[in-house]
Predict the structure.
Amino acid sequence: MRRAGREPSRDAASLSGYAPDRTFGPDDYYDVVSVGLNSRGVRTKGQVYYTDTDGDEQTVSDTRSTAVAKYGTRFIRLDERGGSVKTSAQASALLANILDDLETPFAEQVIEAPFFWPIELGDMYRFSANDEHYDTDQDWAVVGYRHVLSQGEKRTLSQVAGKPAGGYRRWLENERIVLSRPRGLWHKSTTDVSTTDASPTNLRTVTIPGGSIGPNGAIGITGTFNVTGTTATKSLSMDYDQGGQSSIVAVAYGSSDAGRLTFDLTLFNRGSESSQRVDSKITTDVSSISTKAAPVSLSLDTTQDFDLIWWGDVADAADVVTLEISSIEFIGETR
């Protein structure tokens, strides 16, 4: 014989309409040892970031709205950079499994019954009403168990929840590894994106998941533009959007000087997830561009998703604005 492990199927994410693997009659279990909801490990929003086949940093995000309404915004972020996750589909499937396991409280009950050796993680059991512990039949998924075997005593303690969970502790352990890092890259791209149209263009947009910064957290934002063309006006900015797009820092110039410009921003939450300060630095080799940028105050609700946008506009179709490099980095607590 050889011991083997497997993850339980998540196809029966809801117990409704699912045939139990075994039914325990009213006299087939002794006691309900503990009853309770432990919501400390609940996660209702998540993000996975990974390295794609081109070597660029990418992210996927997901929110379980029903769980948010019940338990609030509880964020988990996992780092799969350098691992086997290479595509958006793979990252999305991983995040779906994580939130399937974590969006409801873990181990809602522990049921004591006679020794039952066939028990397996992920099994669905029905416990019939006995008018002492339950007055209606109860269906539960096994998320843990313990056998007690001694002289004169043989029993099984089943740790059960409302649905199967395949990686509860594993996801939270991985989360702690990521969150313990003082810095972490969320997004990086070195793929050129250009505008030559005489109309404003969002060159790149990255969504920051709600709840991912924290009341004293901060993120670093950078973008390097390459500008060429005529003496017509060229405009560049770093914007945000949460129900309406607005600029954080912007420059505009009308000379034919060609060169590069880099925005380097730090967005701080100031002890609140709805109050921010943004410090900006501009570096450029274009002499006609001012590098002065005053601090900006914002009132974003960072418990909710918001977009960061690298933006460009040209007044003449012969002009070109190219976003060469963009990145967003989690800096950590700034208390």
Summary: The two ends are 55 Å apart (CA to CA). DSSP finds three helices and 20 strands in the chain. Residues 12-16, 176-183 have pLDDT under 50 and may be disordered.
